[in-house]
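Archive entry: two folds, one per protein. Generate the first.
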Amino acid sequence: MKILVAGGAGYIGSNMAALLRAEGFEPVVFDNLIKGHRDAVGDAEFVQGDLADSELLVDTLSKYKIEAVMHFAAFIEVGESAAEPIKYYQNNVSNTQNLLGAMEKAAVEKFIFSSTAAVYGMPKEVPIGEEAPTEPINPYGQTKLAIERMCHWQMMAGKLRYATLRYFNAAGAGSNGRLGEDHRPESHLIPLTIKAAMSKRSDIKIFGTDYPTADGTCIRDYIHIEDLCRAHLLALRKLETENELVYNLGNGKGYSVREVIEMVRRLSGKDFDVVESGRRAGDAPVLTSDATKAQKELGWETKYPELEKIVATAWEFHNKYPNGYSD
């Protein structure tokens, strides 16, 4: 099966393309390289292009006889989305509309959408199940929810079979530590802490130490990138018999900010400064997933649920690429 991987030069997309190749699929990576890295694509077929280019999308889908699309091309920074909401609606929503329109013209029905736990906003209960209210509190989450609803109505019109996968915190590195996080700028806790251990940052900050958790810091659900990508393959197979799928993807277990910091210290053998600051607006004390639906319906299970494995693979990547990818 030939699969278009939109955003396949980014962190999750590049790992997905690598897994597809390893499993005998033929991925075609489509990326404008604004956020992605050509070095992360490897030997996969690559088309440099923008999702705003409808004509190129239709041509690519037709030329390569694409049978399914996996969509990872989105802006993901919550703070930036609040400061520049139109930028996020343009890139995330309008460009996805272009992609779905091109798929309709090229008669490609299967679609795997990279969504987010941010669609739940500030949940009243944790762990969070798929039935929880979707009440995003920032433009990033709103754009992802808007796309989910667009997919639903396209499915109701008989023009789409899709799975929306709501990620918690993708982390670690795949392909033996070759494909990891190289966001510019970086905002995720694990790579930021690793950079502090590598003396590429002066310190790591903890925002809030008085939360109602065991050590006073926020708890988040981290899922290894390869576990995340395997769920996409299972969802793709499920679309052979289903038209609409919605799943949470997470470990179901959380780790605190202090636990992450201490794990990086232990695995790296390095010490670094930790600066305690006040809470940030909008940070929930605990955000963890209930992913039993994906486990039961897809037969999905996490192979690397331990924080140690997640951090160890990330550490391996950052030591292989201490300055990030060359491009």
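Generate the second and append.
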Amino acid sequence: MAGTDSTQPHWATMPYGGPAIILVRPQLGENIGMCCRAMLNNGLLDLRLVEPRDPWPNEKGRAAASGADIVVDAVQVFDTVSEAVADLNRVFAATARPRDSSQIVLTPREAAPTFHSSAQEGIKTGVLFGPEAKGLSNDDVVMADAILAVPLNPAFKSLNLAQAVFCIAYEWYQTGVDMDAWREETSTRGAAPALKKDLIHLFEHLEQELDDCGFLRPPEKRPTMVQNIRIMFQRAQLTDQEVRTMRGIISGLTRKHLRGRR
């Protein structure tokens, strides 16, 4: 559908801020390019790729972006999901199948105000999207604070990657058309959620100590136990100070245990 106004700069009517779009193990450069186009349609610029199958930059991807070069040229590529979300405070997982998770499930429309209020408070957000064939794995989903699910025909929920990105980006953009009301509603500021890299360090610290004391047994149940523990902490939306406190608690208990064995 035509509708590009070349006389307007790309950022002319963008709402304030916006979530990072993180494509996890995308397969085709063309699909990445179409996601770039869907993002710029709705004023989003921050695209991150995790282990893309097709190398990036990709000329087929640029062609599929149909002029969204400002997004294409700024793409960042990461080796792991952990690295891609390290500087974010809140992460959402876009999936049609919550996979029996106990995480909060929101529609893109329900989540859109959170994206805007978070941006105004300096809280960085992002949305994870899985590979075209299989979607996000359980290990990917537990990196998120909540799940985003698009309400569609229950008998046929399949979306291609660019469609999924567009659904969420569109709701974000439409919610931000009038930002004055959102600024009034979100004037109260609290402590910022912890960065994902700090949460990951907390998880790794706790899991190492739980391994050492024999809690994460038997081995075949360890992955599920770790996922449940991480989901529990993600749901709490810990602040930076709370993460430091938890690290101190773990270290304190460990030191006490070691002294007791002497």
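Annotation attached to the second fold: The radius of gyration is 20 Å. The chain has a mean pLDDT of 87.
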